[in-house]
Description:
Blueprint: H1 2-15, E1 21-26, H2 36-43, E2 49-50, E3 53-54, E4 56-60, H3 64-74, H4 78-90, E5 98-100, H5 102-112, E6 116-121, E7 129-134
Parallel strand pairs: 4-5, 4-6
Antiparallel strand pairs: 1-6, 1-7, 2-3
Amino acid sequence: MNRKFFMGLALCALSFPCLAGSVVVGADSPAGALDAEAVKRVFLGREATVGGKPAVVVYQKAGATKSAFESGVLGRSGADLAGYWSKLIFTGKAKAPEELSGDAAVKAKVASTPGAIGYIDDGAVDGTVKVLFKF
Length: 135
C-alpha cells in the first residue's frame, strides 16, 4: 500500500506542475533582494523607486504566471487590481503600470529600462535580468 500511495503522489505531481515565478530587474540594476511585502508595495504603486530609479512597473497581460503572481504575492484578482489602479490613476497618485504579453516582452523591457521591474516564469530567467524575489 505504501508503494501505491507514493506512485499516486508522484503521478499527481507530474500532472499538476507547480508554477514558479520570479520578480526581476535588469542585470545591471543596483536593486537588492526584496521580501514579499516590498514586492507588494512596488507592484501596488506604494513604492516610487527601484534600485534608486523611478519605478516602471510591468505586469503581464494574461497567463498562468500573472495569475500566480496576483493571487500568491499581491493577494488580489485581476478585476480587483484593475479597480485599484483606476482609482490611483484617476486621483493622480500613480502612473499606470505597463502591461506586456509574455515573459519575453517583460524580460526585454526590464533588461533595457532602468527602474523597470516585472515578473516572469523561472524558466525564462537568464543573464539579462536579476532575480529579486521568487514566488
